[in-house]
């Protein structure tokens, strides 16, 4: 089950967005041999307030034990199940530029329930070359990947002018979940889930926040 599917089964979208952070914190605790954790400790590790964490987990039916807290292994398994990560999701990355190659080499996918089964590009000069241990395939191979490997998620790492065409090809091949790194809004039919990762926008927000921090100091200096 994807995060979108989790929200459709009654877990609020805002809660779904925070579940990966809880799972990451729980996984780190389990690796350190921690058996149980309080809501205060877990919320601090996940960067949210204790009340918000308890409310989020109540949507999963987890309330913890007073004086003991949450069982780390059980809660991690429950969140894993809700997010649909109890199985490996086959992923294809489209666009073998610098970003696409970096994503293909990212080892974090495998530890979070995702398996990159293919890398593709529409540039014939790149087809047949290798990227992160995989042979770059042509876009024409998409339908076969869906049929034969159960390709479930397409990651678009192309320039913006190519992204919509790639999205159309993914949808036509039967892919219903898309992660888009291209700085463009995609048009997809109903029943197709798109998540957008806009690095430029995030940097612009950070620039705004950084500027806001300097404004009081600048104004004080001008007054003095």
From TrEMBL:
GO molecular-function term, one example from the UniProt record: DNA binding
Record's keyword annotation contains Transcription regulation: yes
Superkingdom per UniProt: Bacteria
Any one Gene Ontology cellular component term annotated for this protein: cytoplasm
Keyword list, A-Z: Cytoplasm, DNA-binding, NAD, Repressor, Transcription, Transcription regulation
GO biological process: negative regulation of DNA-templated transcription; response to redox state
Binding site for NAD(+): 95-100
Keyword Cell wall biogenesis/degradation attached: no
Residues of the CoA-binding domain: 84-185
PANTHER family recorded: REDOX-SENSING TRANSCRIPTIONAL REPRESSOR REX, REDOX-SENSING TRANSCRIPTIONAL REPRESSOR REX 1
Family in the record: Belongs to the transcriptional regulatory Rex family.
Protein role: Modulates transcription in response to changes in cellular NADH/NAD(+) redox state.
Protein's name in the database: Redox-sensing transcriptional repressor Rex
Naturally occurring in which organism (per UniProt): Phycicoccus elongatus Lp2
Source species taxonomy: Bacteria, Bacillati, Actinomycetota, Actinomycetes, Micrococcales
């Amino acid at each position: 089950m994807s995060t979108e599917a989790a929200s459709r089964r009654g877990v609020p979208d805002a809660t779904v967005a925070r579940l990966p952070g809880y799972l990451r914190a729980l996984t780190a605790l389990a690796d350190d041999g921690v058996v149980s954790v309080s809501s205060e400790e877990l919320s601090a590790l996940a960067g949210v307030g204790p009340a918000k964490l308890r409310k989020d987990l109540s949507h999963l039916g987890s309330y913890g034990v007073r004086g003991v807290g949450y069982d780390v292994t059980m809660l991690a398994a429950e969140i894993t199940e809700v997010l649909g990560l109890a199985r490996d999701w086959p992923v294809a990355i489209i666009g073998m530029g610098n970003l696409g190659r970096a994503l293909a080499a990212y080892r974090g996918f495998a530890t979070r329930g995702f398996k990159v089964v293919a890398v593709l590009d529409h540039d014939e000069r790149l087809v047949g070359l290798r990227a992160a241990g995989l042979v770059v395939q042509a876009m024409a191979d998409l339908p076969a990947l869906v049929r034969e490997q159960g390709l479930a998620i397409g990651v678009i790492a192309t320039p913006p002018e190519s992204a919509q065409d790639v999205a159309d090809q993914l949808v036509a091949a039967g892919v219903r979940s898309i992660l888009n790194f291209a700085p463009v809004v995609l048009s997809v039919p109903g029943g197709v889930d798109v998540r957008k990762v806009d690095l430029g926008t995030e940097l612009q927000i950070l620039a705004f926040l950084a500027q806001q921090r300097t404004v009081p100091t600048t104004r004080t200096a001008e007054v003095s």
